[in-house]
Design goal:
heterodimer, A: alpha+beta, B: 6-stranded mixed beta sheet, 10 strands
């Protein structure tokens, strides 16, 4: 014995009417997949920023605020840092790295050879090919992402002296490839101190390692440190500084994304509503009959809403499957070889893609509810009789 | 009002359209139908017989007056009276409307009011002659079978009032008579109002009413009356 009214179950309608249901499900699924596939790679900006910022969770770089180089006065200020573990003299260059749109720049830290291994260990990277740069040479150990993106291998040369379009000053030869979570490369300090680089306005850095667990304290000290004249002593290139700077660079991205996805959503919602209205027209006899035999409009509206939500759920599952399947293939076949990072399960594209079929379902159900409210079952039944 | 009056119309009126296109379909109609009574309703095409039936069923809002079902006024809004319709009224449509994706059994149960409807469908199907078709979908049924399936749905809640709008219009004579036999049998326990063009189908009717200019009057001589079937009388008599 079954409970009365189960015959009107939404699932029963959906399973028995695949030809009516599938077009709307497939349209929604494809657009869900499209949104996911388009928006997720744009999170690569964020993922790349994270990879570039990762080393700054280990060390902080500082340059003199108002002086050409570190003198004894500034050295004393640095050494007065209560959270200081040790500091290392350094220089820094930037290496161009392609992105989805435009390019980013990856740091090449110039350290003395004795510091290389320690630096790599601290930032979580390791040498995976070749050797680290020898003292006084133009050798460079570049990050594997950058090497892959620029098609470089051990023995290749780069820099403005090799390619006028290359913004990295001078000339470097790839002697090694390093890999790991921190997108940073290594060059030799003595080579980077040559006059060529002085003319290129390469600043002197100090790489500051804080005591374990006291990096925030160290950064706060460096940001507030004053020189002998009572002025701020350092420009501090810490994680907070770079986050703020990159956030400003990317601040318009969500606006553009929202506009694109919003437009797609409206178009898809209209298409789905149109498909639903066509389906409704085809079901007008059914609804008229059900109203005539005593099923209320409220119950029918509920049935339509559940049907739409189930369709949306199916479309969402199918769309996410298709979208992530495509992304997985794209990531392996296209993005990774170009060193383009994506945040695979970024919440923003997932939320956008998920909202689409749900919004379409609710919009369809709302419109059908309005149509049901205006429906005159007698007119339909009598028209059929006539 | 007698306790066995199932359906009563009090000053019932229905006007269509406005201005020069205004049509008075039903004008101040008074009617009582008692339990066990079989009332035939005849009239020329377009006289508003079906509209009257929809009014009596509570599916149309009357312009004036009201309908009483089992002694209680039927709410004028179809959604407000839906539960009463579902429980107490069985409607047999001229066109045997069925939900296309449901089987005959499921179509019968679509408006069922209690869990006992399932077993009731089995017994009814035997009487209506669709036992073998209970699990078939409508597209596999002939016109007569579809009409029987519609009948099954109309009777599933053991209604107090059965309203049938040209239930044999699209059927051959033997099938039409079979459908009417079922209705008449059920009508002994309920009140039965049948709209038809075919006087033969009104054999056994207690009264046959004629709708003319929106008012009911006793039907003139009908073939069926000569067959000794219905007693021809005025709308208010019982």
């Amino acid at each position: 014995m079954t409970a009365p009214g189960r015959e009107l179950g939404a699932l029963r309608f959906l399973l028995r009417n695949p030809r009516r249901v599938l077009p709307a499900v497939v349209v929604q699924a494809l657009v869900t997949a499209l949104v996911l596939a388009v928006v997720t790679p744009l999170t690569g900006f964020g993922a790349t920023v994270e990879a570039n910022l990762r080393p700054l969770t280990v060390y902080t770089a500082v340059t003199p605020m108002r002086r050409a180089d570190f003198d004894d006065d500034l050295a004393r200020v640095l050494d007065g840092n209560p959270a200081l573990e040790r500091r290392v003299e350094a220089k820094a260059l930037w290496m161009r790295t392609p992105m989805v749109v435009g390019e980013s720049f990856t740091m090449l830290v110039a350290l003395r050879a004795a510091e290389h291994a320690d630096f790599l260990a601290r930032v979580g990277n390791r040498l995976v090919a070749g050797v680290l740069p020898a003292p006084g040479t133009d050798g460079a150990a570049v990050h594997a992402d950058v090497a892959r993106a620029r098609g470089m291998k051990v023995g290749d040369a780069f820099g403005r002296l090799v390619d006028l379009e290359d913004p990295t000053p001078g000339r470097f030869t790839v002697t090694g490839i390093v890999d790991g979570p921190s997108r940073v490369g290594l060059i030799d300090f003595d080579y980077a101190a040559l006059p060529t680089f002085v003319l290129s306005r390469i600043e002197s850095f100090q790489v500051v390692y804080a005591r374990p667990g006291r990096k925030a304290e160290s950064d706060a000290y460096l940001n507030g440190a004053k020189d002998a004249e009572g002025r701020l002593a350092f420009r501090v290139w810490d994680e907070a500084f770079w986050r703020k700077r990159t956030a400003k660079l990317l601040e318009n991205l969500p606006t553009i994304l929202n506009a694109v996805v919003g437009s797609i959503s409206v178009i898809v919602a209209l298409v789905v509503v149109l498909l639903t209205l066509i389906a409704f027209q085809a079901r007008s006899d059914e609804f008229a009959l059900l109203l005539a035999v005593g099923i209320t409009r409220r119950r029918l509206a509920g049935k339509v809403l559940v049907e739409n939500l189930l369709c949306a759920g199916a479309a969402l599952a199918l769309g996410l499957g298709l979208g992530y399947g495509f992304l997985a293939w794209w990531d392996v076949a296209v993005l990774r070889p170009k060193a383009i990072l994506i945040d695979f399960f970024a919440p923003y594209p997932l939320a956008l893609a998920s909202a689409l079929p749900l919004v379409a379902a609710v919009a369809s159900a709302a419109i059908l509810t309005l149509r049901l409210r205006r429906m005159d079952p007698v007119a339909i039944l009598q028209r059929r009789n006539a | 009002m007698s306790a066995d009056v199932v359906l009563a119309a009090r000053g019932l009126a229905l006007v269509y359209g406005e201005g020069p296109r205004r049509v008075r379909a039903v004008a101040g109609l008074e009617l009582e139908v008692r339990r066990g009574e079989f009332v035939g309703l005849v009239g020329p095409s377009g006289s508003g017989k079906s509209s009257l039936l929809f009014l009596l069923a509570g599916l149309r809002r009357p312009t004036a007056g009201h309908v009483e079902l089992l002694g209680r006024p039927l709410a004028v809004a179809p959604d407000a009276n839906a539960d009463a319709r579902r429980r107490h009224v069985g409607f047999v449509f001229q066109e045997p409307f069925l939900v296309p994706y449901l089987s005959v059994r499921e179509n019968a149960l679509v408006a069922a009011v209690d869990a006992a409807a399932g077993p009731r469908v089995e017994a009814l199907a035997e009487r209506v002659g669709v036992t073998a078709l209970l699990d078939e979908r409508p597209h596999r049924l002939s016109g007569g079978e579809r009409q029987r399936a519609g009948l099954l749905r109309a009777l599933v809640n053991d209604p107090d009032l059965i309203l049938a709008d040209e239930p044999t219009a699209f059927l051959d004579h033997p099938t039409g008579h079979a459908v009417m036999d079922v209705l008449r049998a059920q009508g002994r326990r309920s009140a039965l109002v049948v709209v038809t063009h075919d006087p033969e189908m009104l054999a056994g009717a207690d009264r046959v009413l004629h709708l003319r200019d929106g008012a009911l009057e006793a039907a003139p001589a009908l073939d069926v009356a000569r067959r000794g079937g219905p007693r021809v009388s005025g709308p208010g008599s019982g």
